[in-house]
Amino acid sequence: MFESIALLGFGQGSWGLALLQGAFVTIALALCCLPFGLALGLLVAMGSRSRSTLARGTAYGFSTVFRGLPELLTLFLVYYGFEIAVEQIFAAAHIDADVSINPFFAAFVALSVVLAAFSSEVWLGAFKSIPKGQYEAAHALGLSKAKTFFSIVLPQLLRIALPGLSNNWLTLLKDTALVSTISLVDVMRQTNLAVSETKEPILFYGAACAIYLFFSALSGRLFAFAEHHFGRGHHRARV
Fold it and tell me: pLDDT tens for residues 111-158?
C-alpha cells in the first residue's frame, strides 16, 4: 500500500510532478478559454437581440450548432479540420510543408466556442431581466449607447448572469479532460500514462479526482466572492 502511495511522490519513478504539470496545463487551458468564451458568448447574445436579421440568424445558428454538437466532436472537427484546411491552402499555393496544428491551440478554439454557445443563453436570460425603463432613462439623460451599456447594463448583467456562468465554467473545467484524446498532456493524459505504466488505476484516477475536485471547490469560492462583490449595490438598494 505504501509503495503504491509513493508513486504519487516526486522522487525517481514517481508521478507526482507529472500530475502537477498536467494540472497546470488543465487550468491554463480553462483560464485561457474563459475570457474569450464569455466575451464571444456576450456578443452572440447581443446578436440575438439585434434588429438585424443577419445578426440574429448568425447568433441563432452559432448557438444551435455548438450547443447541439458533442464537445468531443467539436474538438475533433477543429483539430483535424484546421490541419486539413491549412494543408489545402498550402497545396493551392504550391507550398510543400508538413502541417501540424498545436493541440493546445485547437483545444482552446474548440472549448472556447462551446463555452460561448452555452454562455450566450445565460447572457440572453440576463438581458431579459433588465427592465426596458432603464434604457429609456439612460436615453433621456443623454447617455450614449456605449455609456449606457458599460455603466448601467453590464454591471447588472454580471450580477444576474454569474450563477449561470459559474456552471458554464465548471462544465468547461470538466470538458478539458477531453483534450487528452488529441495528445495534449493534461491531467487525464498524464493519469492514463501513469496507469498504463504502473497498473494502479484506482490510485491514479483517484488522484485525478482529487485534482478536479480541488479546482471545482476553489472555483466555487471565487465565484461566491464575485457574486457578493457584484451584488453589493443591489443588496443595499433592496434594504
Answer: 999 999 999 999 999 999 998 888 888 888 888 888 888 888 988 899
Q: What is the DSSP track for 207-228?
A: HHHHHHHHHHHHHHHHHHHHHH
What does pTM read for this prediction?
0.91
CATH of the domain at 125: 1.10.3720.10
Nearest CA-CA partner of 30 in 177, 160, 162: 177
Residue 43, domain extent = 23-238
- How far apart CA 51 and CA 14 sit, in angstroms, is 59
Contacting residues for 161 by C-beta, under 8 A, at least 6 apart: 119, 122, 123, 125, 126
CB 105 within 8 A of CB 124: no
Which residue has cell 433588465?
A: 130
Of the candidates 190, 178, 171, the residue with the CA atom closest to the CA atom of residue 79: 178
Question: Looking at this protein, which amino acid is placed at residue 189?
Answer: R
